[in-house]
Amino acid sequence: MRAVLWLAAIAVAFAAADTYVVVLALPDMMAGVGLSIEELQRAAPLISGFLLGYVAVLPLIGRLADLLGHLPVLVGGLVVFAFGSFLTALSWDLAAMVVGRFFQGLGGGALVPATLALVAALYPAERRGVPLGLVSAVQELGSVLGPLIGAVVLAIADWRAIFLLNLVVGVVLAVAIRRLGRSGTPAEPSLRPDLIALLLLLLAGVAFVLLAIEPTALVQDLTWGALYVPAAGSTHWLTPLGLVTIVATLAFLLKWGLRPGVRRVLGRITEEVDLLGALLLSIALAGVILAFATADPEVAVFSEQGTWYLVAGGLALLGFVFHLRRAQDPIVPRGAFARMPAWGSVLISFFVGAALVAALIDVPLFARTTIYGDSQLKAALVLLEFLVALPVGAVVGGFLTRRLPAGVIAGGGMLLAAVAFVLMARWDADALRSASATVVLVTGGLGFGLALAPVNASILATTEQSMHGLTTSFTVVARMVGMLVGISALTTLGLRSYYAAQADLPSLSSVCTGGGMCEDYQDLLIGAAIAQEHTVFAGAAVSAAIAAVLAVVLLRGAPTRALSPTETVTAL
User: Which cellular compartments is it found in (predicted)?
Assistant: First the structure.
């Protein structure tokens, strides 16, 4: 079973890497569906769609992991991730690509809480630190490998190859986890394959592939070309091939859903899962995600439409709170987060995410602003110094969790991160040319890494094992929401500093006497941009410091380690 755990950790890392791969491949993906780089705002759903799938339904998936078992959710998550990759790879327009990205997020998000809960099921509380640290390290390693994988694939193939690779890896990991997970259990009676369902699935797949790749010989043929003529409008879905894809898929789902085993599982979910509560919570989270993911930081923290998203999310949250008081068995059981380290872990995760995103986004921006100009690769290599240190810190934090209080480790780590951001807020235009900048970046990465295992260990140690999938899903949700809110708020504050600094600049003609833009005036503009990054780093330092204080205070008493004889006597 522990082999399954490490396969699950690899799956989590691969899903994490996909996020960074997409950022690198985004211009090519936009071109693939007919969007120019000037239409970047129209491509925003490629990111927000993934986040919706990753975050909005995560509590429901965590609850399903507790109900059905961690292995089925792991396998199901990988299958859904592979399916989303398949849709994305063969997308012909933006709508189809957004749907594919949504399923990628849905599958990738399911892997994290199921893997953390699997650690809790395999190890006692006082021995979880090391495996949690290793799992966190492997997950964060995905952020290091993502840009490298993307760069290699894009150097030798089209962007679609990235998602076809996801498809292959997802299927291989799903099969491996399923087989290893069943190796230690009694043999199940063999099930007769449903040939009709398989044929329907094959028909839907072939029709979709032909619709996506549009073979020239078929499209230009007088007879077969009719398969690509829409019955109405111009959408591919209303062509004969599109309609066959839709009908065959629905027929497959219906035929598959009528199987006795599937009906039993669906019936159990309907009876034991609070679907109304899950829906209200998903709408509330979706409102927050869309409000901040669609924002233009140059204008406001969230967009005009974002206000309505927040209103809808707020109403859904009020409905959810009211529902919790009346439901007999709500999606979030009463008392699930009763202990301080449990809800404290969720709150700490929010501020960790808000601080972390500043490093992920603004360190490369600072590098491009000051010394690397338009070289995205060189700017990314600067961030690599931070990202490599992060998984190292996660492993160290896991080992320390077995010996020291969780709050001390997490608080110390976030204090290191805060100090690193304070030093970044003092960088000048030549700072990255100095070795001291590397020390700062490594310190920040180590600090964030140190906090990962103690926070996860605390929530696992202070919640019931029957709810570990659900409770750990909230730490993931909090971290992602923190990243969204953090990047929107900090970028808005940074841009205000930039505009204020730019307003104080002398006129161009007073600096550049020869006419046109001169080097001295460019240096002044760079100084204004540095003022923007200083504001962002200072805000991140505050977020990291808040996380440090909260960790020391709220994780106090979390039983994440074996007490020494002296501590045992003192506790008694």
Answer: Cell inner membrane
